[in-house]
Predict the 3D structure of the following.
Amino acid sequence: MQVPLLDLKPQYRTMAGEIQAAIEKVCESQQFILGPGVKELEASVAAYSQCRHGIGVSSGTDALLLALMALGIGPGDAVITSPFTFFATAGTIARAGARPLFCDIDPVTFNLSPAALETFIERYCERRGGELLHRGSGARVRALMPVHLYGQVADMLPLMESARRYGLKVIEDAAQAIGAEDAEHKRAGSFGDIGCLSFFPTKNLGAFGDAGMCVTNDAALAERMAVLRVHGGKPKYYHALIGGNFRLDELQAVVLSVKLKRLDDWTAGRQRNAAFYDAAFRRARLDEAVRTPHACLGVRHIYNQYVIRARERDALRAHLTAAGVGTEIYYPVPLHLQQCFAYLGCKVGDYPQSERAAAETLALPVYPELTEVQLQYVVDTIAAYYRL
Ligand SMILES: *Cc1c(COP(=O)(O)O)cnc(C)c1O
């Protein structure tokens, strides 16, 4: 049996006609840049994310960069984030000219720990004249960038409370979390100043290439991002700001609008598969070897990834690969230990929960079209490994 980590083909087959018609319409119009399809998608994704404004951009990475630029974050500034995330989270902070500062994760959810944030600020930062300074680097701490990893929102209530208390802006990296909710039904992207979504093909709402969006409830920030997206030109060819080309293609937008209508069904499929795994792992009595993901009480976890902690993770992964089961490690090297961030001066042991997660976690196939036979095969294959 083959169980790929992700196979987008069965999903495409269910809507191929509708997508091809939408693409054909754009081809007929020959309007490829910022057309009506982009506007429509911006309105529907913003509403879906409980925000008033959506700014379609070229990728999730560019959404993060644009958000940082719109908030005026640059040289001399610092942004606090999680070291256990995709590279773009901290990569964009550095590209904006600011310094990434890391706080460790909660070992249960893998998301930024509110307690670690408080401890970090108390120990390593000080207030000086209305500003929060990072003592080690002298940088002004301007923003917090929590990540809603794997499709579950970070613990936003206490994180927002800390951010408000210290005057920090909040940029949510919601690349993996479109439609994820906390227990009060508040959605990813709607908590902070700006939420950043990715439509990379492996995300729950995936384009036919790269695409992303910034969502916000702040009209002035929305306007600023819309201008920065087109090189900062407003009116065209008159530049009060230096922006970039961060535009979303019309072709991608119309594909995404067709798919957005089906997103809740796909999410339900992922949740069903996650529940199947949870029950099957319980039945297999692998508690010593495997820890299944924890969805916090009452939240809407959208399971962009179903990630277990596993004893002998790398050997288990090899066993699964040999048995035809696709897996992935998100992410094998925490960001504070990446070579390109050596200048930050972090070392092994600085963020033990992130380092442990990097060594123990493994993502299993969870996409909606998987059959129960396939899911059971994955669990049986894992059980067989530990019973060898
Ligand atoms: C995918 C992802 C991004 C980047 O999105 P792209 O569209 O690939 O540029 C950023 N942060 C996280 C957590 C992601 O998973």
About this structure: The chain has 13 helices and twelve strands.
